[in-house]
C-alpha cells in the first residue's frame, strides 16, 4: 500500500486591513482613547458634479438610484421642519418648503394664541425611512426646444415611521436668581393648565406611533435642476381612490413619465 498523503496545512486567513482598522477603532472607543484620525465615516455620499451624473433623459434608472441614495442621507433633516413649525419660526426652512405648504403653515401659526406655542419632539425612528414612490416626468417638448433644455419634475414620496410627541407650552415672564427678567416655557395641557416638567429624555404619555408619507420634489427648468423641496404630505392609496381613477379618462398631461 502506498503512503497516506498527509492533508496540506491551510494558511490561516488574515484579517483585511479594513477589518483590522475597524477592530482597533472599536477597542479605542471602548477605552475612551478615540483617535483624531478616524477616516471617512461609513456610507458617506458625495454627489458627483452635474457633468458626471447619469442623465435623466438617457439613463433614468441609474440617475434614480443616485438621487435616492443622496435623498436617503437627508431624510433625518425633515424633522427640523416640524421643530421650526412648532416653535412658530419658519425662517430657517423657508427655502426648503414649497410656496403652497409654506403659506398654509404661516396661516396656522398666525392663528395661535399669544404667548403660547408647541414643542414637537422626535423620540426615535421605529423603522428606516422607505421610498414609497419615485417618479419623474418631462413636460411636452416645445417648438424649437433642445433636448438639454427641457422642463420637468422629479417627485419622491418617503415613508417615515417614528415615535413623536407634541406638547403645548405657555411662555411666562419671570425673574432668575439674579433678578433678571427672562421668559420661561411651561408645559400645559389643552386647557392651559400647567403640567409637571418631564425629565430629560423621558417619553410623554401622549407620544404616538406615527406613519407619515412626506412628498419631496425638485423642478427641472430649461434643463437645470432645482433643489429638493418639501411639497407636503399625502396618504396611502385606497381601493376607492383606485376605482375612482379607473373611471377617469387616462391622460398623460406631463408627456413622458416613469415610475
UniProtKB/TrEMBL annotation:
InterPro entries: Mba1 (IPR024621), mtLSU_mL45 (IPR051975)
Compartments, record wording: Mitochondrion
GO process annotations (BP): protein insertion into mitochondrial inner membrane from matrix
Biased composition (Low complexity): 12-31
Keyword Mitochondrion: yes
Ranges where the record places region Disordered: 1-36, 240-259
Keywords, ordered alphabetically: Mitochondrion, Transit peptide
GO cellular component, one term: mitochondrial inner membrane
Principal cellular location given in the protein's record: mitochondrion
A Pfam family the protein falls into: MBA1
Name this polypeptide is given: Tim44-like domain-containing protein
